[in-house]
Amino acid sequence: MDTRNGTGTETFRIDRGLSDPRNLGRLVEYDGREDLDAWSQNTSMSFDFEKEVMYKDVMARKYINSPRNLEDSRVEESNECFCVGRGKKRQCHKRGIIDLYDCIEQPKIVSYPHFYMASPEYQTYAKGLNPSKEKHEAFFEIEP
C-alpha cells in the first residue's frame, strides 16, 4: 500500500524576517525555483492584520486577505499580471475576479464564493448570491 496521503512533495522556502521584518512570511523559493512563469511578473497574495482574537484562552492575531489582491488592475496596478491576452484583445476583469488562463492555459476564472468583495455587477449575473464577510472571507489566525 502507498504510504502517502496525497500530500505534495514540493518544498517551500519562506523568509523568517530576520534581516528585514517586512519580508516575514514572504515565499522566497518554491521547489528550488526563485521565479515561476505562471504570470508575467512575480505576484503574491497579501494578508492584512485585522484584530486580536481569543481561541480557547490563547491570544491570536487575525489576518484577512487584503482587498488589494482582487482589486481591478486600473485601481491596483500590481494586478495587471492577471489580465489576459495581448494588444486589442487584452482583457482585464473588474474587482473580485482572477483569470487563470495565463497560469494554467485553461479558461478558468476564480473569485470568492458568492462574488464576495467583487464588483456589484458580477452579483447581478445569478440569483441567490448572498456575499457575506463572516462566511466567505479568507483569513488565518496565528499565535504571535
From TrEMBL:
Protein localization: Cell membrane
Any single Gene Ontology cellular-component annotation: plasma membrane
Keywords recorded for this protein, A-Z: Cell membrane, Glycoprotein, Membrane, Transmembrane, Transmembrane helix
Gene Ontology molecular-function annotations: scavenger receptor activity
Record-linked InterPro entries: CD36_fam (IPR002159)
Superkingdom in the source lineage: Eukaryota
Chief location of this protein within or outside the cell: membrane
Family stated for the protein in its record: Belongs to the CD36 family.
Full protein name: Uncharacterized protein
Organism: Timema douglasi
Lineage of producing organism: Eukaryota, Metazoa, Ecdysozoa, Arthropoda, Hexapoda
